[in-house]
Structure prediction request, 246 residues.
Amino acid sequence: MSEAADLLLEFKDVDTYYGDLHVLKQVNYTIGRGEIVSLLGGNASGKSTTMKTIMGVVRPARGSVVFDGKPIERLATAERVRRGIAPVLEARRLFPRMTVFENLEMGAYTRKRGPEFEQDIERVYALFPRVKERHAQIAGTLSGGEQQMVAIGRALMARPRLICMDEPSMGLAPNFVEQVFATIQEINRQGTTIFMVEQNANMALTVAHRAYVLQTGQVVLSGTAEALRKNPSIREAYLGEMQVTV
Ligand SMILES: Nc1ncnc2c1ncn2[C@@H]1O[C@H](COP(=O)(O)OP(=O)(O)OP(=O)(O)O)[C@@H](O)[C@H]1O
Ligand SMILES: [Mg+2]
Prediction:
């Protein structure tokens, strides 16, 4: 990814702290337009902090986060959403007392209500027939897998250029995991760039074009998904080929 015009998101030497705790250390990522990029790494390596740094939940102490050619690290979260970044963060954070439909509506709050709204709802229902079936149900009563689908659907309602996902497969049964990843690929084919944290390395390296590996806040490996699948240390640490001691 060398052409700046093809880059949608960049981290340039980003350092992020929580108080004195130095979590991201001189981190660089590049996400090209149209890519699916996975972020792998052990617990507490800084994966969720990466997503929070993109969304503005935490601000980097040093370095720059560039979206569509412009630095965004000083912008409020709502402005980042308006510019086209949509989060699907940990724990899904649906509005539990609202219906499924109302949750999807909330995803479109940054846009003017118009005919596209109906199209977008239909697109979400086409991707997730289950969400359509359950549109009138109170979101807090959905199963975990159904909530994940609504969370992804809600992100799509913002018509984002980039979706940031934190562990989309967490807590899902295997058949749901496959469905969610198939949908992620379909969303990508329809033109949305995707950056996702995923513990399921097998799945992550199957659907992604490229991936980064974080270890205690530093990028220790990156490359095409194909190259990483063949990398012996990835195979040992993440693809379950040997017992690991980290
Ligand atoms: N709000 C916070 N305040 C203080 N420390 C935090 C905060 N959020 C995260 N941390 C710490 O920062 C480090 C990195 O956390 P992060 O959530 O980014 O890890 P992760 O790679 O997503 O891990 P996991 O795989 O367990 O989700 C951890 O040591 C964590 O305890
Ligand atoms: Mg995390």
